[in-house]
Amino acid sequence: MKICTASLKSIVPYSSSRMHDSAKLKDETHDAFDKRTWREKATYNEDGVICIPGMGLKMAVDEAAKRIGQKIEGKRGATYTKYFVAGQICEADVPIGVHKDDLECIEIWANADGVRGSGKRVRRVFPYVKQWAGVARFLLLDETIPRDVFEKTLIGAGRLIGVGRFRPEKGGMLGRFSVENMEWSEV
Predict the structure, then answer these.
(1) What is the pTM of this model?
(2) Contacts of 52 (CB under 8 A, 6+ apart)
């Protein structure tokens, strides 16, 4: 098994939209509830430090592999996509150096039902991190994925797919990142 330790740095801000199960107060409007609980839409660790979800990074890399569609030499047109989906994972959530209490927010007009173009819009509040950096550790469980292909795909994930709310994969512009450094080891 290969391990890629990658230093990631924001190109643009990051915004998250994690579901949470905070209870609405009696007679509280949805607007007031959203303004009171927006910090809960962020993923954070036990120390209160905001994290990029590891699964979000894994899925960004999977989607980049699919879109890049690099063919496996000698395998009659087969691509690496299925090997990425089943054979790589980001080991854990990635702390990005911002404490929950220092988090900024952004207010936007969003579709009430989450469907683009559906008509009714409501004001929503989301966590917003202007600049961030973190170290992600990816485990490559499938030996079929060469280092150079993984590196190209991770860089593509940062530039083309992104992470979080309103990322390029979903037609947005947030959550893009660069890969500053990659170190490799084997188990």
Answers:
(1) 0.93
(2) 8, 14, 43, 93, 94, 96, 132, 134, 136, 163, 164
Gyration radius of the chain's alpha carbons: 18
Q: What are the residue ranges spanned by the domains of the chain?
A: 2-100+130-186
| Spatial distance between the Cα atoms of 40 and 18, rounded to a whole number of angstroms | 7
User: Could you count the other beta carbons within 10 Å of the beta carbon of residue 102?
Assistant: 11
Which one-letter DSSP state was computed for residue 26? Answer: T
Phi and psi dihedrals of 94, rounded to 5? -110, 110
In this structure, are residues 101 and 127 in contact, taking their beta carbons and an 8 Å threshold?
A: no
Nearest to 19 by CA among 1, 40, 50, 36: 40
State pLDDT tens for residues 94-139: 999 999 999 999 999 988 777 777 778 889 999 999 999 999 999 9
* DSSP track, 117-182: T-S-EEEEEEEEBSS-EEEEEEEE--TTS-HHHHHHHHHHIIIII-SSTT-GGGT-----EEEEEE
